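SEQUENCE AND FOLD
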Amino acid sequence: MRKKSLLSCAVLLLALALCLCACGQEQPQSPPKPGVELVGGFTFTEENWPYIGGSLALLPLAEAVTAAALDIPRAEAAELVRLENSTTWNYNQLVNGEFDLLLAYEPSQEALDYATEKGFEWEMQPIGRDALVFIANINNPVQELSSQQITDIYTGKLTDWSALGGNPSAIIPYQRNRDGGSQTLFDLFFPLGDELMEPPSEQVVGSMIGLLEVIADYDNSVDALGYTVYYYLTNMETDKLSRSQVLAVDGVEATNESIASGEYPYTNDFYVVIPADLPEDDPARILFNWICSDQVKELGENENYVMLK
């Protein structure tokens, strides 16, 4: 009996030693989780996922696309997507090969010129629609502008809010930096050329959030006027929206419905963009094709974008 007991103990000690040895060794890492099989049987992983750039207002769409294609939580997708700097900078980085694909608003003339200079061609497809909106402080009694009044303000012909039914105080018309996406839209809709007033340097704002801050929070905000893209203000900066107001233009308020129908006068498409010479089996082109699909349109609508049908 004692021999059997000793033998049992030896077997137990040997099993324990083997277990401890195995625990001390580095365990193999699990392979990265593959994403969802897309058209043609292609599956994205984090290793083959294209590097996405683009306009800041399209960040939620980029995150939703990344999360869906890789089948990962939204928080993890956010770590893989960095939409920053100006829209023009992002187009230039696509030309330079730093990005594989863009989700972006209209390219500026500077971006078009840079692509031409480099002999670069891109392929772009409109997938949704946004709008250029004009914003004032919530305490400003003026709630509407006409297109002509906007032109007169930004050419320096109309300078006081009292002429618009507001308080007798000077209008402070802010502008964006030249390579900003909202400035590109302003120049598209209001091609004022040399007539555009030259603002003091403190009235040129280098970021969308910066412009919203001067309208909502800074000294003399009640007299300020500015412009931005509708989605960014109403979906990504609701705190600033609570202290601002989107002005109707020519009697039409900006809403998802008036933007979709084109009733609001200053609507413009946004795009998915890739280098034109990509082969059909390149991951960026496969992603491009998928983003143009009805499935991604549904993703965009879930993020409250106006998607093209």
In short: The CA atoms of residues 86 and 180 lie 5 Å apart. The longest helix spans residues 2-24. Confidence is low (pLDDT under 50) at residues 1-32. The domain at 130-267 is CATH 3.40.190.10 (D-Maltodextrin-Binding Protein; domain 2).
